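Pilot study result, target chain (598 residues):
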Amino acid sequence: MASNVEAPERWYLALLGFAEHFRTSSPPKIRLCVHCLQAVFQFKPPQRIEARTHLQLGSVLYHHTKNSELARSHLEKAWFISQQVPQFEDVKFEAASILSELFCQQNLVDSAKPLLRKAIQISQQTPYWHCRLLFQLAQLHTLEKDLVSACDLLGVGAEYARVVGSEYTRALFLLSKGMLLLMERKLGEVHPLLTLCGTIVENWQGNPIQKESLRVFFLVLQVTHYLDAGQVKSVKPCLKQLQQCIQTISTLHDDEILPSNPADLFHWLPKEHMCVLVYLVTVMHSMQAGYLEKAQKYTDKALMQLEKLKMLDCSPILSTFQVILLEHIIMCRLVTGHKATALQEISQVCQLCQQSPRLFTNHAAQLHTLLGLYCISVNCMDNAEAQFTTALRLTTHQELWTYIVTNLASVYIREGNRHQELYSLLERINPDHNFPVSSHCLRAAAFYIRGLLSFFQGRYNEAKRFLRETLKMSNAEDLNRLTACSLVLLGHIFYVLGNHRESNNMVVPAMQLASKIPDMSVQLWSSALLKDLNKALGNTIDAHEAAQMHQNFSQQLLQDHIAACSLPEHNLISWTDGPPPVQIQAQNGPTTSLASLL
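Predicted structure:
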């Protein structure tokens, strides 16, 4: 009798051993692994072995092959059989979890949701799985842009974690909820939630890496909250804490000691991903503040780290990080006068988006915005308008919408004959009345746009009022680019009014700041003004020096302009519909006007 019971265990363990050997071979021999697992059913095994084998087959087929229908069939059997077996939680809930992932991959979200809800309902006595399934359903709602349902589930998870004595996982649920509330701009709910999270994180005594990772999550939310609000100076203490925190984590060794509470078996992000994320928010800060060389340095570090990680890890979040880094560095390149490089990086973003429809859906508006900015830099105003109009159609993000409208208004001002459209736009971004977002930076930019329009209309006193408001706001938060732009425009106004001394007082610091950023367009503008100013003041040597600087900047911009417009990627400026074009045809030389540069 005893030998009869042992016999099936021996054959089962042998087949399982072979299957695992083939799965972990280099390269993996998946077909042989599947054959070994399928052979288990020839022995008519008991329900526990039958359910586990269906799960193993479903998992291997899902992760290593494209045979999703067969994977689904095995996972459905594992889920069905395991519900009839007592105390078989791991198989039951892992089957539900993987099966719901497969449903989502097949765009069967309406099949995934009830499955996860049922699994959540029956997993309340299994803390690890209950929490994991709550996170999974919350993520599914988030991907569907149903942030209210996702927040509700994360709230349920936080309360459950508190009841089962896991303050660590409670903090993870609350921080995740805080992240979604920030996305929804529910700032009134975010502040008390972040305060509570801060207290929980500081009071929690546990694994040092887990504690520091909670602090990184908490500080990333705080930093992005400040940056969303355009508060570049106010964010510095938080950013410094975040950078110190990631340094601490990088010195800690991963302990293999498992937490005593199964509800604590979660990690927010791997340590390496957190490092890239901290580089990313540092780049965001440097770009907003106008420290573009620093932004370049951290982008290079982050992209190098990402390339290493992507060799071993195909996590979608790495591609998202890469796209966001490229988006920021492209804007830096356009400011520093490296349009050709910016265009090639825009093409790189297109290629990344071609590989992932979800990435394209989330970044299409940003991609068209970047193309619009590139079009302005090469003086293709009709294309810039078409790109910004496309971006406005694709975005629901209020800050991005405001940023696009501000840039589109600058296009209409330059064209000089779009008064009706321009006034319609300016009414929607009036910095004095019902400004659509709370961003300090965008409101300061809206004042600048008003000042620019008043300047072109010859209403100089009104222009000065708007520009002084921009200066006041940009100085308060160290917005260096806006400060430089406002100073040079004020200098131009004083020059036109014949107040050369006051003009000089504006243009000289504008030039110094533009050189520090460096902002090539403001340097070009400032050097032209300094040349005329010094000539008017009789400073022949200074006038000659400024003329030489202006000539150098003009030549650099002209060469870059020709290089950019000669690239086959320049044809992207005509793309305004559908997914990014797969192949970009070369064209014969530049077709755009260089007048704006000279």
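One observation from the pilot: The first helix runs from residue 2 to 23. A full batch analysis is planned for the follow-on phase.
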